[in-house]
């Protein structure tokens, strides 16, 4: 059989296209191992799932691949856009890593031949089959920019789009471990959310933090998931009180302060200081960061304390995981990130009494760093963790630094 000759190709492609059109709840695509055609249709559809028999994959892909490149090279007659769209659907469903084919679909969207929302649904299925496909995620972001431009005043629609993208990135991350493209896509969506839907961004950030905690607890070696967690932590450390928020809830303040107090007391063996239990959040932060200055009038110390509590919370979670899974390199690298973050936090607080983005990217020490109560507590925890790791014969590069 010649590579560009497959009599059943057009029928198979039409069947697949019809399933996409009729089943709006289609969720998945898989290749089903079948040795020969057995005189049956290779297209399988059941319970919102699409399948193709493996025997037809190679000849079908060769058929659409050659047709599409002949078209681009003007070596075949001009085809109607619906036929080309059908070929592209088959080609990208089987091999979504070909940028040329995605660019052809981009051109169809520009010309009004394809519906952007339907394209997002198509890419959902592509990512189910090949969850770590950079080109598919890039195509989604391109479509989102178009939809964002068309719906600038429809904030509710934009918010729904963004939340759907978060679900898609979760699906892709679950189907392919260490899926950096899925987590980077999620970062992009969170950044867009922060810009466009600022009124609900705070609640989204809290929810993402909780979901990240659950994910990292059950995927202790997923370095891409931890990279996303570090991205969230930086956002939380830099979070400011909303312009329409007149007062921070006292219950939230008490809860976040207790997290910090327990961390210090557990690390320093029931360390107690009257300033840790005071209602002066300025005094608490000064003690934690080892500084002793007069009050800086423009700073909201309550918000700074809440922001710091997320770093402390992450240290506590990381400590518990290392006590159980001390042989996992990802956890130690994340610990290293927490240590470098503390140096940056101390430096920023010493200079500004809050945390600034330019300081979080620098770990230059100040003269007051050695007096930081947080640093002393973290050093004690690190010493205990390293001793435990050595006892069970796991010596990590972190131990030598």
UniProtKB/TrEMBL annotation:
Which Gene3D superfamilies did the record assign? Protein prenylyltransferase
The protein's superkingdom reads: Eukaryota
Pfam families in the record: PPTA
Provide this UniProt record's keywords sorted from A to Z. Prenyltransferase, Repeat, Transferase
Please verify whether the record's keywords include Repeat.
Answer: yes
Q: Which GO terms describe its cellular component?
A: cytoplasm
InterPro entries attached to this UniProt entry: Prenyl_trans_a
PROSITE patterns reported in the protein's UniProt record = PFTA
Instruction: Show the GO MF annotations.
Output: protein prenyltransferase activity
What does the similarity note say?
Answer: Belongs to the protein prenyltransferase subunit alpha family.
PANTHER family, per this entry?
PROTEIN FARNESYLTRANSFERASE ALPHA SUBUNIT/RAB GERANYLGERANYL TRANSFERASE ALPHA SUBUNIT, PROTEIN PRENYLTRANSFERASE ALPHA SUBUNIT REPEAT-CONTAINING PROTEIN 1
Record protein name field: Protein prenyltransferase alpha subunit repeat-containing protein 1-A
What is the organism of origin for this protein? Ceratosolen solmsi marchali
């Amino acid at each position: 059989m010649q590579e560009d000759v497959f009599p059943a190709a057009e029928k198979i492609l039409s069947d697949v296209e019809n399933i996409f059109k009729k089943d709006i709840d289609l969720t998945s695509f898989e290749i089903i191992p079948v040795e020969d055609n057995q005189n049956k249709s290779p297209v399988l559809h059941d319970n919102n799932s699409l399948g193709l028999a493996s025997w037809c994959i190679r000849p079908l892909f060769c058929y659409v691949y050659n047709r599409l490149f002949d078209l681009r090279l003007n070596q075949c007659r001009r085809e109607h856009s619906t036929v080309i769209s059908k070929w592209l659907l088959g080609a990208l469903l089987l091999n979504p890593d070909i940028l040329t084919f995605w660019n052809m679909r981009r051109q169809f969207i520009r010309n009004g031949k394809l519906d952007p929302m339907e394209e997002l649904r198509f890419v959902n299925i592509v990512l189910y089959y090949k969850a770590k496909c950079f080109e598919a995620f890039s195509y989604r972001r391109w479509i989102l920019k178009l939809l964002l431009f068309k719906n600038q005043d429809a904030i509710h629609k934009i918010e729904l789009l963004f939340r759907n993208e978060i679900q898609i990135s979760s699906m892709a991350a679950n189907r392919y471990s260490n899926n950096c493209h899925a987590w980077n896509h999620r970062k992009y969506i969170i950044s867009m959310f922060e810009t466009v839907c600022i009124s609900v961004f705070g609640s989204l950030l809290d929810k993402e933090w909780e979901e990240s905690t659950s994910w990292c607890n059950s995927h202790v070696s997923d370095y891409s998931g931890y990279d996303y967690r570090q991205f969230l932590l930086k956002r939380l450390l830099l979070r400011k009180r909303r312009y329409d928020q007149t007062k921070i809830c006292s219950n939230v303040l008490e809860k976040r302060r207790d997290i910090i107090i327990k961390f210090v007391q557990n690390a320093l063996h029931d360390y107690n200081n009257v300033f840790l239990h005071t209602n002066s959040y300025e005094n608490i932060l000064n003690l934690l960061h080892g500084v002793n200055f007069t009050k800086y009038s423009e700073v909201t110390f309550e918000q700074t304390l809440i922001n710091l509590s997320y770093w402390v919370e992450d240290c506590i979670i990381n400590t518990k995981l290392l006590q159980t899974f001390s042989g996992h390199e990802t956890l130690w690298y994340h610990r290293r990130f927490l240590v470098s973050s503390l140096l940056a936090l101390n430096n920023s607080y010493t200079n500004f009494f809050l945390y600034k983005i330019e300081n979080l990217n620098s770990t230059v020490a100040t003269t007051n760093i050695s007096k930081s109560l947080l640093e002393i507590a973290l050093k004690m925890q690190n010493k205990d963790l390293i001793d435990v790791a050595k006892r069970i014969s796991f010596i990590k590069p972190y131990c030598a630094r």
